[in-house]
Design a protein that fits this description.
The complex is a heterodimer of chains A (135) and B (149).
Chain A (H helix, E strand, L loop, with lengths): L7 E2 L2 E2 L5 H29 L3 H9 L2 H29 L3 H31 L11
Antiparallel strand pairs in A: 1-2
Helix pairs in contact in A: 1-3, 3-4
Chain B lengths: L7 H4 L24 H31 L2 H11 L2 H28 L6 H28 L6
Helix pairs in contact in B: 2-3, 2-4, 2-5, 4-5
Classes of the chains: A mainly alpha (135), B mainly alpha (149).
Chain lengths: 135, 149
């Protein structure tokens, strides 16, 4: 637990803070998104103008459903980190900073959960929502 | 002039030095000569922020599809309207520029292309890619009859 002796790896001091981890996570998510974005554009071109039947048919393919879920989760992860940096750069009031960072994480988390929920339903061919919720 | 109780120390973002003076801050935008790496950096943030809205629109699209044919028809009539297509076009430009600018950063992170000349070239290249690839993508969509005005 002692912080007096610094750790070294390959002659480089190992960071005692969390910045390096955030830096790596930003790059890792970006690397993952390079092929997924190209696939996403191709998927968008396929899906545009395909109508309700064409789109629901597309989601019944497990490959499409899984790739779209991974793309969206990776995108929302990358987005949460990116906006966190922007907020940290421009907001200096401690209370506002905490509020905006919390809101950003909450929005990204909710979007990720919602998209996985909808994608799973579409992949399984579940009845259209809001099943049993009136209307 | 300053001590820990000075409220301006909190509201202006100035960090106080042990000698009681505010730590000097780096000069702001208006004193810099514009150069392309600066423009490309700002555009990366702007397009990234725009893509926040874009991501929400994609989730709305999936939600509409999961809500049945009627809800999806409403979504498509809005998304396929001239204004809707303009929003999607902006989304495409933002995505393709941010994509190219991101790859540019990965190249730099690998330690390559860090001379001013190659950094400028990569930045101009990202901007050109964002515009040209978007126009090509939408030219294809229209030519293939996938979207129409």
């Amino acid at each position: 637990m002692s912080r007096t002796t610094s750790q070294y790896r390959n002659g480089v001091k190992v960071s005692e803070n969390h910045g390096a981890g955030e830096w790596k996570a930003e790059r890792l998510s970006a690397l993952i998104l390079v092929p997924l974005t190209i696939w996403g554009l191709w998927a968008a071109a396929t899906l545009s103008g395909s109508g309700y039947d064409g789109a629901t048919e597309w989601f019944r393919s497990p490959v499409n459903a899984i790739l779209l879920a991974v793309t969206l989760v990776a995108t929302l992860w990358h987005m949460q980190m990116g906006v966190k940096v922007i907020v940290e750069d421009y907001i200096h009031k401690a209370g506002t900073l905490r509020l905006l960072l919390g809101l950003n994480t909450l929005i990204c988390l909710l979007l990720a959960l919602a998209s996985v929920f909808f994608i799973v339903r579409l992949a399984l061919g579940s009845a259209p929502l809001p099943a049993g919720l009136g209307a | 002039m300053s001590n820990a109780k000075d409220p301006s120390a909190v509201t202006t973002g100035h960090v106080m030095q042990p000698n009681g003076r505010p730590r000097p801050m780096s000069p702001h935008l208006q004193v810099w000569r514009w150069h392309v790496t600066m423009l490309a950096s700002i555009l990366t943030r702007v397009t990234g922020s725009a893509l926040y809205v874009g991501a929400i629109l994609v989730v709305v699209w999936i939600a509409a599809l999961a809500s049945g044919a009627e809800a999806y028809a409403t979504f498509v009539s809005l998304a396929g309207s001239p204004l809707g297509l303009l929003v999607w076009f902006g989304f495409t430009v933002s995505l393709l520029y941010h994509f190219a600018a991101g790859v540019r950063h990965l190249i730099w992170d690998a330690g390559a292309a860090l001379t001013p000349k190659s950094a400028d070239a990569l930045s101009w290249g990202s901007i050109a890619f964002g515009v040209v690839a978007s126009l090509a993508f939408w030219a294809y969509l229209f030519a293939a009859g996938r979207v129409s005005l």
